[in-house]
Design goal:
Shape: rod-shaped
Order of helices and strands: HEHEEEHHHHEHEHHEHHHHHHHH
Strand content: 5-15%
Number of helices: 17
Strand order of the largest sheet: 2-5-6-1-7
CATH class of the largest domain: Alpha Beta
Radius of gyration: 39 Å
Oligomer: single chain
Mean pLDDT: 83
CATH architecture of the largest domain: 3-Layer(aba) Sandwich
Structural class: alpha/beta
CATH topology of the largest domain: Rossmann fold
Number of strands: 7
Bound molecules: adenosine-5'-diphosphate, magnesium ion
Helix content: 55-70%
């Protein structure tokens, strides 16, 4: 599973937020209570509702504004019945300051979640015309009670997934909240809403008679998309890469988040592999066998250096003031430790490990031989 990365700051959208804020605040004598927030999936509708809630919370908040939010939810067999309504009532309950407000909210909430009465459950699903008004009035009563002298901003998100009961409530509240200071804010995916005739018809009716304003959330422009990539990437990202991701996502904030998260994950996997490789390489190095001459004793290293320089056992014995037999036994041990079969291979290992210098280097260093100690403890291993 890819971890979700979200920008803590809102990128751009100041114009959209200002328009939405003005729409929600309304003009003097406003009679239409409905505001639409439209856009494709992932464009940032829900985020804008969040930001609006925040902007109503701090600074500029009109006295007595309560923000309540509910989401329509798609279940296995289609929309969950009245999921948004229950959520709205929960928010209203939290905001209710007085006992009478709480009672009113509880009474409405009972109709949805507390009552084992089949007739009322059927009402709530909007299938029993005789009693259908009962729960609608109860919800309106709760909204009015909590609004008091102020107002409630009732936001319903993902209206494209609204069930029959929620569609009924929307149509009902649009009429009953007209000429009150309260607002019905509806966010939805334009295309998907159009695919459901009952939702499309409801939205068309609202547009004709009750719509105050509509805010469309388009995709982010290139500059803002790159800003968003920077804001969600864990570490600063090279500019070309940020631009490439921004373009690939076409400015859709949700796709941007997913692409950055996927890249971060791929990077973490690559880094883990790299670490695993370097651990394996380190493990190789500490193997006693192999072509790493620093596992040899000082004396053996001296001998190997001379082997690398092409000296015979006799010559080695002479330079080190040891017997031929001792020199030969050193060479045998060295071949064993290096896991090679011949002096030539040993000489190659010595060269690979930097134990042998070229004639030129030897001459420059002032050493008489063409040998050189490239091991970590080279200082102790000079030929005498
Ligand atoms: N302007 C923005 N700045 C920062 N993050 C954003 C912006 N717009 C959207 N996002 C983020 O992109 C993701 C998708 O946005 P969301 O509001 O859920 O889309 P929608 O509701 O339109 O499907 C969310 O994680 C949201 O926080
Ligand atoms: Mg959303």
């Amino acid at each position: 599973m890819t971890r979700r990365l979200v920008s803590p700051t809102l990128i751009g959208r100041s114009a959209e937020l200002a328009t939405l804020r003005a729409a929600v605040d309304g003009r003097e004598g406003e009679t239409r209570p409905v505001v639409f927030v439209r856009g494709d999936a992932g464009a940032g509708k829900s985020r804008l509702l969040d930001e609006l809630r925040r902007s109503l919370d701090d600074g500029g908040r009109r006295p007595g504004t309560v923000f309540a939010l509910g989401h329509c939810v798609l279940g296995v067999d289609g929309a969950l019945p009245c999921a948004a309504v229950v959520e709205l009532l929960d928010d209203l309950g939290r905001a209710a300051q007085e006992q009478a407000m709480r009672e009113s909210v509880d009474a409405a909430r009972q109709l949805f979640v507390g009552e084992p009465d089949a007739a009322i459950a059927a009402d709530a699903a909007g299938t029993a015309p005789a009693g259908a008004m009962r729960w609608l009035e109860a919800v309106l009563g709760a909204v009015q009670a909590v609004a008091g002298d102020g107002r409630v901003v009732l936001a319903i998100d993902d209206v494209q997934w609204a069930d029959a009961g929620t569609i009924d409530l929307i149509a009902f509240l649009a009429r009953r909240l007209a000429r009150s200071p309260s607002v019905l804010l509806l966010a939805y995916r334009e295309r998907e809403a159009r695919l459901r005739p009952e939702v499309a018809r409801c939205l068309d009716d609202l547009e004709t008679s009750w719509l105050r304003d509509s805010v469309f959330i388009s995709y982010l422009g290139d500059r803002e998309a790159v800003q968003l990539v920077d804001a969600i990437a864990a570490a600063p990202m090279p500019r070309e890469r940020a631009i490439r991701i921004a373009r690939r996502a076409g400015g859709n904030p949700l796709f941007l988040e997913q692409l950055v998260a996927a890249e971060a994950e791929a990077e973490a996997v690559a880094q883990q592999e790299e670490e695993a490789e370097s651990v394996a390489a380190a493990a190789d190095r500490v193997q006693p066998e192999g072509i790493y001459p620093w596992h040899l004793s000082d004396r053996e290293r001296e001998v190997l250096a001379l082997v690398g320089a092409g000296r015979t056992n006799r010559e080695i014995a002479e330079s080190l003031f040891i017997t031929d037999k001792t020199a030969s036994s050193h060479v045998t041990h060295i071949l064993d430790k290096l896991g090679v079969d011949s002096r030539v291979e040993a000489a190659l290992a010595a060269a690979a490990a930097g134990l042998v210098r070229t004639e030129q280097e030897g001459a420059e260093s002032g050493l008489d031989g063409d040998i050189f100690q490239g091991s970590p403890d080279a200082g102790r291993a000079r030929p005498r």
